[in-house]
Structures are given as structure tokens and as C-alpha cells.
Amino acid sequence: MPQGTIKKLVTDKGFGFIKGERNEIFFHHSALVGTTIEELQENQTVEYEEGQGPKGPRAENVRPV
């Protein structure tokens, strides 16, 4: 499972971006597992699965490490 760090959080809109091993990837708060977007912090390490959303690549099953 790839790992990355939270690059940017937009908590009021419910999404953010992860700086991954190969690129930057979008995530929606509905993809979080075992946490909420309010509990995440920028530069925090997370693991995720890469998926495809309506507008391109997105992170799924995002979990803090």
C-alpha cells in the first residue's frame, strides 16, 4: 500500500491532497478510514490505495500510519 504525507487540507470543503511516492493525489473525506478530516494534520503520514474518481486519480481507504 503506498504511503504519503498530507500536503494540504481543506476541512471546510471536506477534501485534501496527499504528496505520494510518485505524485500528488486528491482525497475526499469519505475515503478516510478510522479517522476524520478534522483529526488529520498537514505533514502527517498516511497510507492509501490509488483509485479513479470522476475527475481523475484519487486516494481511497486513507488511513493514518
Automatic annotation (TrEMBL):
Which GO CC terms are listed, alphabetically? cytosol
Q: Which domain of life is it from?
A: Bacteria
Question: Subcellular location, in the record's words?
Answer: Cytoplasm
* Bilayer-spanning residue ranges: none
Annotated CDD domains: CSP_CDS (cd04458)
> Where in the numbering of this chain does the CSD domain appear?
1-64
- Name the UniProt key words of this record, in alphabetical order: Cytoplasm
Q: What is its main location?
A: cytoplasm
Region: Disordered; residue ranges are: 43-65
Q: Its Gene Ontology molecular function terms?
A: nucleic acid binding
Q: Does the keyword 4Fe-4S apply?
A: no
Name of this protein: Putative cold shock protein A
Its gene name is cspA_1
